[in-house]
Amino acid sequence: MISALPLPSQPHHHSKTERWCHLIGLVSLFIYAFTWQLSLDISRSFEPLIMLVYVIALCAHPQRLHMLRDPLWGLLGIWVVLQFVTIPIANALFPDHADAQIKDMRHLSKVFFILPIAWLLAGRTRNGLWMLSLLFVGMLLGGLFLGESWSTLAHYIQAGKRPRLGFKNWEHAGVCAGVMMIALSCFLPRFLRWSGSLDSGLMHWGTRLGYTLAVILAVTGWLITRTRASWLGIVVILLIALIGVLWLLGRGHVRSRRTRFAILYGFIGLALVMTVIGALFGDAIISRVFAEHHVVLEVLSGDLSNVPYSSIGFRIHAWHYALQLIAERPWFGWGPQSHIPLLLSAPNPELKAQAVSENLTHFHNSYITLLVGNGVLGFAMFVAIAGVVGRAAWQSWRQGAMPNDVMIFLSLFFIFWVIVNCFESYVGYRTGIYLDGLIGGLAYSYAMRLRLEGMNKATSKTGKITRENG
Questions:
Q1: Which of 131, 178, 186, 185 is nearest to 441 (CA)?
Q2: Of 18, 81, 175, 275, which has the highest C-beta tally within 10 A?
Q3: DSSP 139
Q4: Is residue 48 in a domain?
């Protein structure tokens, strides 16, 4: 692995301090990504070190002030100022939850971990793929060794119960499995080229066997957790990918015979996988998808009084209550973790009773949770962060710095992430914290690399002119 770290030759390193910070930080980042599901305490213990080496390298850079002009630093400053308004209000409204408000604010602030992660990845695809590989291997190992036993898992599958697989709950497990499926699909051609170049036959087939096993585990986890939001997200991006491929073929952009055959094999493989899934899980999928169709019909009728407090029904009633809360405090919200006392004291007695009895103390929607907790201004901050990172990724891809498969993965992940967050509050929990930081950092790293290389050229040019004038 260490041979994959191009530390001494990074063009934006100006000193040994920066090189050592990069080495320490990158190794720490890999451990951070690998252990987040295996041991959260170990993973979190690396957060201060990752941030520290980034700040030290930032201070050691000749154009440190210019680096601070990064738009994410500006958004971080605005976010901190907003908390000086939001947190005191929340503490006054819910004094018993004062510590929890600070904790949730700290969790939400970790979205700015995109900055050090982007700097450490340095726009090097090899580093990014190592990070994603370790992240997914850690997820799989966590599911295998920290989740239900094999006998319990078999019983759950037979009885139609939903396993947690070592995650916070089955929704988080299902979404993480969906993210793995997206990545494994997008990077499959790259993996086949790499594994095909290996000299050792054992390594060649061993790595391909491992990749196949990862695909099987990811698809199985995606199915048995029965997370409808994750199912919907994957179906949507499959349709988008299919339309995209057909459009490219129709416009004549795919001229290589080899690529055309690869697409054909991909369609055949997808058809086989769907056939197997239908044969093994078809009845369970249909039962799960249509389990609450009557609830959806009641919602569409417009009369919420007839909507039962089922899985979907609870969400509908909670969202309706949330809209009232947002209207009451639209700008700064009620506080990052005010969703707990607000739901436990809901004016709707049935909503309150279910929240208390089943510990349903959040709104099952990241966007509504942000609007209730942090108001329109806090929500706008997350939209702005997504806009800055998305624009940077798009520009770096257009300039040729970001490979096509990375851009495809990031685009499909973003669509999937937008969909699943409509039905669960992932952003404030560790699933959202890690995926936002790590994948957001990967997306931003290419633009940061281009910016640093540009500053390095400017610094070299200025130094040359100074020497000539001297």
A1: 131
A2: 175
A3: H
A4: yes
| Per-residue CA distances from 231 to 209, 226, 242, 286, 408 (Å) | 26, 8, 16, 12, 19
What count of residues does the chain have?
Answer: 470
Residue 224: what residue type?
I
Other CB atoms within a 10 A radius of the CB of residue 337 amount to 26
Inter-residue contact 346 to 321 (CB < 8 Å): yes
- Is position 185 within any domain? yes
Answer yes or no: are the C-beta atoms of 225 and 431 closer than 8 Å.
no
Residue 416 lies in a domain: yes
Q: How far is CA 201 from CA 196, 207, 454, in A?
A: 9, 10, 43
State the total domains in the chain.
1
Degrees, nearest 5: CA angle 383-399-128 = 65
> Which domain does 450 fall in, by range?
9-296+356-469
Q: How confident is the model at residue 334 (pLDDT cuts 50, 70, 90)?
A: very high
For residue 137, count other CB atoms closer than 10 A to its CB.
Answer: 16
Task: Note the pLDDT tens digit of each residue in 262-307.
Answer: 778 888 888 888 888 888 888 888 888 888 888 888 888 777 878 8
CA distances 407 to 121, 128, 411, 456, Å, are: 16, 12, 6, 26
Nearest residue to 336 (alpha-carbon basis) of 85, 74, 40, 36? 85
Q: Output the pTM of the full model.
A: 0.91
What is the phi-psi region of residue 157: left when phi exceeds 0, alpha when psi lies from -120 to 50, beta otherwise? alpha
